[in-house]
Amino acid sequence: MTTRHTVAPKGQGGRGAYRTIGEAVRAASPGDLVVIAPGTWTENVVLDRAVVLTAEHGRGSVVIAAPPGEAAAVTVDGPDCALHNITVWGSDAGLPAVSVSSGAGLVLEECSVEGGRVQVKGPEDEEGGTTAVVLRRCRLEGARLAGLHLAGGVRARLEDTAVTGVDGTGVVLSGTASLDAVRLRLERTTGSGVRLRGRSRLRLTDSVLAGSGRAGLLLEDATEATAGESRIETPGAAGVHLTGSARAELTDCRIRGAAASGLVVQETARLSASGCSVADAGANGLLVTGSAEADLADCRIDRSAFSAVHLAGAAVGRLADCRVRGGSEHGVHATGEARVELTDCGIADVAMTGVSVLERAVATLTGCRVAGTAAGIGIGSPAGSTVADTTVTGTREIGVQVAKGAAAALAGIRISGAGAAGLVVDEGAEATVAGGRVEDCAGSGAVVWTGARPEVTGLHIDRPGKNGLFLAEGAGGTFTGVEVTRAGFPALHVAKGADPLFRHCRIRDCAEALGTDEGAEPVLEDCTADGTPLTFGTPAAAPANGRPGTASPSASAAKAADDSDEPEEENLEDLLGELHELVGLDRVKQDVGSLVKLMQTVRRREEAGLPAPPLSRHLVFAGNPGTGKTTVARLYGRLLKALGLLRRGHLIEVDRTALVGEYVGHTGPKTTAAFNRALGGVLFIDEAYSLAPAFAGNDFGTEAVATLVKLMEDHRDDVVVIAAGYPGDMHRFIGSNPGLASRFGRTLLFEDYEPAELVSIVEYQAAQHRYELTPTARTELVGLFEAMPRGEGFGNGRSARQIFQETTERQAQRVAELAAPTPEQLISLEAHDLPHPAAR
Fold first, then answer.
1. Which residues of 62-97 are buried (b: 16+ CB within 10 A; e: fewer)?
2. What's the mean pLDDT in 187-210?
3. Left (φ > 0), alpha (ψ -120 to 50) or beta: where does 267 sit?
4. First CA to last CA distance, the chain
5. What are phi and psi of 678, to 5 degrees?
6. How far apart are CA 170 and CA 217, in angstroms?
7. Residue 110: DSSP 8-state
8. HEC states along 74-95?
9. C-alpha span between 689 and 326 (Å, rounded)
10. Which residues, at least 6 apart from 267, have a Cβ–Cβ distance to it below 8 Å?
11. Neighbours of 534 (CB within 10 A)
12. Beta strands in 95-143 (DSSP E)
């Protein structure tokens, strides 16, 4: 039976009340309750039996203060002791205010400990039992060295507890101590937030470690920690730091504003993180050195001051479905003999290289995306890296580079929009390329430097700013099944002493097929240029098809090739139906429909022998990227062919790089060559305003415009020119030459797609590839498009297609984990297959 003992000052509490807490405790039996009247009680209370101390009038009314010079205000030597609603003051911030001895037990509930730490000692070995401590809804404040120190065989639990204002480490675990902390709030420590030593263990849940002077969470020796749904904010060093052989598992954690690296893993430590984010790190987002290993899944690393992921020594990093965005250096940087594996990861907008591999490091990339970086992927290690099914887009410099002496295997890569060359195989590098595409790069599609001899198979290079393939002096290699289309320079350029083997290569719609320097020794086996056999050693006279740079075929062969390219006859009604099936573009459809009716009338007047009214078929397409301008232009040419107003109706797409030369006298022939390829069809000039820059000076673009105006007049019945670009900039283009305004009499405005229209584009793509969106996925997709920023990087239909591609990639990763997926599972795109809005 529990006995109640009252502690009150003299004259209060009635008969039998004790004048000190110590007297009441000594008089109590195990299990008794000691009720304390309000006031400050200056004494060292020793709890050597199972008693409960509680404040009579609730929290804050009772203070137990250590006498001057005493070590602690409360010393616990017995099991099952408890303090409720009591404030404890220590006499020295560097000493314990509450001390729990080995084998004892204490529950602190609704208590505050100020001016000293809570120190709990357990037995040194496992045979000595354990010391148990529980803190519920407590506050530890103003200690020095540590706020809570658990040493030896201690088992502790913190619930809804705050540790703050510590001149040192917030919580220290050593020996074999273990702590289960739920909703811990730790802030304002000059040292680390939580420090683990020896073989201690920590489980952290729904907690916040904020404003530590050093690491937020520090693990040393052979310690282990798990943390879930917790935040580490603005630590003065690393967010989470593992050394020795420590182990840590993080789930749904957020690490923000670390003064050093967000995650640090050193020596032989191991880190596993899932669903976590690291943002605004003062150094690396993730740093792995020594022989340490880190496994990250579905994590984000944003805006790192150094490389987002850095691996050195013999470290290993495995990242799956992770995103890196922003940063002052590389996205992923591997050095030494480190190994990094990236699966279905995205890297965007870093200042240097997306993935950089140096010294003898090895990288394995599968299904990754690199966008908006200075360079895309740089392999500088001879140890042999692999890149498969990976996309590199919008780099300011080279897309993918295999550097001097390095070795890499590339399979199924796609490089788009590189600011320089798409793919570079540097001097003496070893590279194999199997499949893939290089498109719309400002420089050559692929460059092979001296001494490099890559094996390239099935690569498609489309619309490079310069050559499709450029082989420097003394380069070589085997190029099988390579396709080059719409190159502004010779599709294949072979320098002096280079001896590549081109086998089964196809060149189409290029300014020239083959350019060679004196002393070049290319070998061509079963190669063609626009259907005509391509050989080396025959004078490069212009063939009948008007394309220079190929071996001159016989007239019959040229005629056969030209006939083989002739498009099939198409029905006007079918083409109009195809136009109206396009998503959105209602205003454009109406305008094109009106043009078709007008041209039908023109055609009928001509057939009746009547003079045709003055009519310009040239158009301006004004709209943002991805609004369907190229698609409609291609359809417009086919409509004119069906009306009998164009011979072929094909579309030749060019931009400034295909029209403007690099030196005096180069622009006119280059523009003419592009124009001649469009005869009988449509010449589509993308970003036409770039031919008339705001501050032109001696820009060669004005010469290209003048050449175009003359050619449009000379061939006004045999070609249609469509100039496309941003609405605001197209006015400047039309006004740059007096002849343009009279020839471009009509502008079609392509408006941005609405969210519902973008969803329809995704659904169309899904149907084309035999996928189906679930109703929930469709609803989520509408919200995704509604939330998508419509800034400079928004791509309209292109963004919708990218969303579809990312969704199928994520679905493939999910389905791959199923033992025996059903046909329905294979085609179903679910809501969690959609990319996260924050990753866009």
1. bbbbbeeebbbbbbbebbbbbbbbbbbbbbbbebbb
2. 97
3. left
4. 65
5. -90, -5
6. 10
7. S
8. EEECCCCEEEECEEEECCCCCC
9. 30
10. 243, 244, 245, 289, 290, 291, 292
11. 23
12. 96-100, 105-109, 112-114, 117-121, 131-136, 139-141
Residue 338 has pLDDT above 90, yes or no: yes
Q: Two tokens at 787? A: 């939330």
Q: Tell me what the mean pLDDT of segment 6-16 comes to.
A: 82
pTM above 0.85, yes or no: no
Name the DSSP letter for residue 477. Answer: -
Q: What residues form DSSP beta bridges with 509?
A: none
- Looking up tokens 């380069």 gives 475
pLDDT, position 663: 64
Burial of 815 (0-12, 13-18, 19+ CB in 10 A): middle
Answer whether 304's CB lies under 8 Å from 283's CB.
yes
Model confidence over 610-645: pLDDT tens digits?
666 666 788 888 888 888 888 899 899 888 888 888
The two tokens of residue 127 are: 């045979």
Of all helices (H) and strands (E), which one includes residue 600?
helix 586-607
Contact 723, 733 (CB under 8 A): yes
Side-chain half-sphere exposure of 197, counting CA atoms within 13 A: 12
> What does the pLDDT look like over 343-363, one tens digit per residue?
999 999 999 999 999 999 999
Return the ∠ at Cα 510 (arms to 448 and 425), rounded to 5°.
10
Backbone angles phi, psi at 30, to 5 degrees: -55, 135
Say which residue the tokens 């009635």 belong to: 14
What's the sign of the alpha-carbon dihedral 150, 152, 154, 157? positive
From 126-135, 282-291, 353-362, the region with the lowest mean pLDDT:
126-135
* DSSP single-letter state for residue 567: P
Give the pLDDT score at 713: 84
Question: Which residues, other chains included, contact 495 with Cβ-Cβ below 8 Å and sequence gap of 6+?
Answer: 470, 471, 472, 473, 474, 475, 516, 517, 520
C-alpha distances in Å from residue 575, one per residue of 291, 579, 638, 640: 63, 6, 8, 10
- pLDDT confidence bin for 703, thresholds 50/70/90: confident
Task: Name residue 506's amino acid.
Answer: R
Backbone phi, then psi, for 800, in 5-degree steps? -65, -40
- Residue 656 tokens read as 């400034």
Q: What is the mean pLDDT of residues 392-409?
A: 95
Structure tokens at 128: 């000595």
Q: What is the pLDDT averaged over residues 717-746?
A: 83
Alpha-carbon Rg of the chain, whole angstroms? 37
Q: Answer yes or no: are the C-beta atoms of 238 and 255 closer than 8 Å.
A: no
